[in-house]
Design goal:
alpha+beta; 4-stranded mixed sheet; about 25% helix; Ribosomal_bL31; Ribosomal_bL31_B; ribosomal protein
Length: about 80
């Protein structure tokens, strides 16, 4: 391999600000910010969403059969549609 062409791979702390969770992950991302975590200093990146706060992973995603335009349609026309079958 050629010298000095590859990015530095290191452990980086990602902070999910919406869930206040910290993740230590190997990454090549560049940052000037640092944080002390578990007695060591790591590069630090803030993120707005992760597996700790994303609705898909937390199970808090919307069910369209109970909410939104589909539910309004079924509420208005559901009894009419059921009678015609």
């Amino acid at each position: 391999m050629k010298a000095n062409i590859h990015p530095v791979y290191r452990t980086v702390v990602f902070h999910d600000t919406s869930a206040n969770e910290y993740f230590k992950v190997g990454s090549t991302i560049k940052t000037d910010r640092t944080i002390e975590l578990e007695g060591s200093t790591f590069p630090y990146i803030t993120i707005e969403i992760s597996s700790a706060s994303h609705p898909y992973y937390t199970g808090k995603q919307k069910e369209y059969s109970k909410e939104g335009s589909t539910a309004r349609f079924n509420q208005r026309f559901g009894s009419f549609l059921n009678k015609t079958k």
